[in-house]
Amino acid sequence: MLNAFIKLFTETKWMAWFWTLCILVACTIPGKSIPSAPVIGFDKVVHAGLFCVWIVLWLLATRGNALLCVAAGIAYGVALEFYQQLLPFDRTFDWWDALADAVGVLLGYYFKTRIIDRYLQRLY
């Protein structure tokens, strides 16, 4: 079952594109519409989690140049911060969010290369 699940993500890029769009939509929501965080810094954990999933999906979908995917993930995180600065409502650029995005990309890369790839090697 897990093999079929992973195969679904490795044969097409639709889920990676969908997740990319979900992150864009989430970053476009006005800040006042987002519930307050249960603890200080929780939003950074959310940023890291979103980008951790993002890089895993793209690495599974492309099976290509991992360095390019990592660079694209970090660039996407920074670009989203500039995008938020341009929005006409209460969203602003935050370097700490961009850093959390980059940390998420690196954690996701580590997870994909150390855990998922080892699992796939055992299957094939």
Automatic annotation (TrEMBL):
Keywords: Membrane, Transmembrane, Transmembrane helix. It comes from Dyadobacter luteus. The chain crosses the membrane at residues 66-83, 95-111. PROSITE patterns: PROKAR_LIPOPROTEIN (PS51257). Pfam families: VanZ (PF04892). This is VanZ-like domain-containing protein. Residues 24-110 form the VanZ-like domain. It comes from the Bacteria.
